[in-house]
Design brief:
The chain is of the alpha/beta class. It is 37% helix and 21% strand. The protein has 16 helices and 19 strands. The longest helix is centred in the N-terminal third of the chain and has 15 residues. The chain is globular, with a radius of gyration of 25 Å. The chain binds guanosine-5'-diphosphate.
Length: 485
């Protein structure tokens, strides 16, 4: 997943970069600088696009979503990356109809035949619900309603976000006469289209226009409090911590997401700072289906990670760090979100256990050594007030941006002090570096050859020493120069 996210950024990892065959690198570097300077000019874009209402397309693979997108947008290009408040693994198109401008979101869908299909469906649908003003649910009328369609329908029927039911591949008048049966799905009037031939697309666009608000409900989402998820294996004290936080601080239960299967989030004010704790209903309800509890817990965790910006991962300090903790940590790393580690039940441990725990942390948690740690007791309330500061630190690290100038100064010094080892008689060199995005900080390194992993790790350590990034993972993409022959 994280690979996809990065590829979606301002250029594709499959792009080849061609250079002239001269040995002076300065022109190459100049070209790269010119190319990537615009990375930092996103603000203007955000202001222009942010207020437009958002329409998401969901549906099974092969129902014709891409063809439909082409119908709706005409020859317009996929614009956009990195709209604040939404996730990055989708494509955003700038669309309009009859003077009404909107953003069309291609959700990417899910892969078929995968053991994780249900989890993917639920995550995709949840994201569409969370980030759009209108959902287009597309089905293939030739194939009919499949089990997957049924699963999606179950999830979207409950949402307050309006849904349009689009029956694609209705290629002739005869088929059109049959679409009445789709009323029974409970999603309102079915809209017949043939994306391939264009039939019905005008009517669909009219319906989209009718059902869209003038401004996106996400207009101010950028200014909303940062989203925090509390996760951890069962009985680590998630609900105890949430209770402590909400009882001792000002807390507003809200239906911000408004629409989800479990609609309750909470805004909790910690030391004057608002934080948006997500899926708190799920924590309080103690989602323990008698059968398949683990399965549902996993589903829920992945949807929760997707929605959050910072993860509070809770670990029991009186218990040996378990496989399940390690699994959650890898999930967190994959998600690319900011992290705070909470060691709960500190009231239960003595000095011996404390020393043991430190040893476990330095071996089991070494790949998240960058995360701030808070030792506390949700039961007594001891040090619960430290959470606000840790969240702030992580968010700051996750949103840090380094200018191209500063970064290249750093790279120059790094390379001078740490030449890459010779491989096959050749030495790789980093020519140029740029930060492609934040959330999490992601860097592209343009090099003359491959970089050893240990070298990359060393570079990451030095980057952290110099610029911080506390609480955040760092992603590095190496782009090897190809010389023209
Ligand atoms: P959840 O499943 O992660 O939501 O865990 P709960 O909040 O329900 O807590 C599980 C058990 O651990 C309950 O019996 C809590 O009273 C207990 N517990 C939670 N936090 C602490 C703590 O800091 N110290 C101690 N001694 N017990 C705790």
């Amino acid at each position: 997943m994280s690979e996809d996210l990065i590829n979606q950024d301002s250029f594709k990892s499959t792009d080849e970069i061609w250079f002239s065959n001269n040995n002076d690198d300065s022109q190459d570097i100049k070209d790269l600088e010119d190319n990537y300077q615009s990375t930092f000019d996103e603000q203007i874009f955000e202001e222009v696009v942010l207020n437009r209402p958002r329409v998401s397309l969901i549906g099974r693979p092969n129902v014709g979503k891409s063809t439909l997108i082409n119908r709706i947008i005409g020859r317009r290009e996929a614009v956009v990356q990195d709209i604040p408040g939404v996730t990055k693994d989708r494509v955003y198109y700038d669309a309009q109809w009859d003077g009404k401008e909107f953003i069309l979101i291609d959700t990417g869908g899910w892969t078929q035949d995968s053991s994780e299909m249900m989890s993917q469906i639920s995550t995709q649908v949840q994201k569409a619900i969370d980030e759009s003003d209108l959902i287009l649910f597309v089905l293939d009328f030739k194939v009919g309603i499949t089990q997957e369609d049924q699963d999606v329908i179950k999830l979207i029927r409950k949402t307050k976000t309006p849904v349009l039911l689009v029956a694609n591949k209705v290629d002739g008048a005869e088929a059109e006469n049959q679409i009445g049966e789709l009323w029974s799905l409970g999603l309102g009037e079915p809209i017949p289209v043939s994306a391939l031939h264009g039939r019905g697309s005008g009517e669909l666009l009219e319906k989209i226009k009718e059902n869209l608000p003038n401004e996106s409900k996400f207009k101010d989402s950028k200014k909303g409090p940062v989203k925090v998820a509390i996760i951890g294996k069962p009985n680590v004290g998630k609900s105890s911590l949430l209770n402590k936080l909400s009882k001792t601080n000002r807390s507003i239960v809200s239906e911000i997401s408004g629409t989800t299967v479990d609609p309750v989030d909470e805004i909790i004010n910690l030391n004057g700072q608002d934080w948006h704790f997500i899926d708190t209903a799920g924590i309080r309800k103690r989602f323990k289906e008698s059968s398949g509890f683990e399965y549902y817990a996993t589903l829920r965790t992945s949807a929760t990670l997707e929605r959050s910006e910072i993860i509070l991962l809770i670990i029991e300090s009186d218990q040996v760090i378990a496989d399940q903790d390690r699994r959650l940590i890898s999930q967190v790393i994959d998600s690319g979100k900011a992290l705070v580690l909470v060691f709960n039940k500190w009231d239960l441990i003595d000095e011996d256990r404390h020393l043991e725990l430190e040893r476990e942390i330095s071996s089991d948690l070494r790949n998240v050594a960058w995360a701030p740690r808070v030792n506390l007791s949700a039961k007594t309330g001891w040090h619960v007030d430290k959470i606000n500061k840790a969240l702030k630190i992580s968010y700051q690290g996750w949103t840090t941006r380094i200018s191209t100038g500063k970064l290249n100064q750093f790279v120059k010094e790094f390379v001078a002090a740490n030449p890459h080892p010779l491989r096959g008689g050749k030495q790789s060199k980093i020519l140029f570096a740029t930060q492609i995005s934040d959330k999490p900080p992601t860097f592209a390194l343009f090099t003359t050859g491959a970089l050893d992993l240990t070298y990359q790790r060393h570079l990451e350590r030095k980057l952290r020493e110099q610029f911080g990034f506390e609480g955040s993972p760092i992603h590095i993409k190496v782009k090897i120069r190809q010389r023209k022959r």
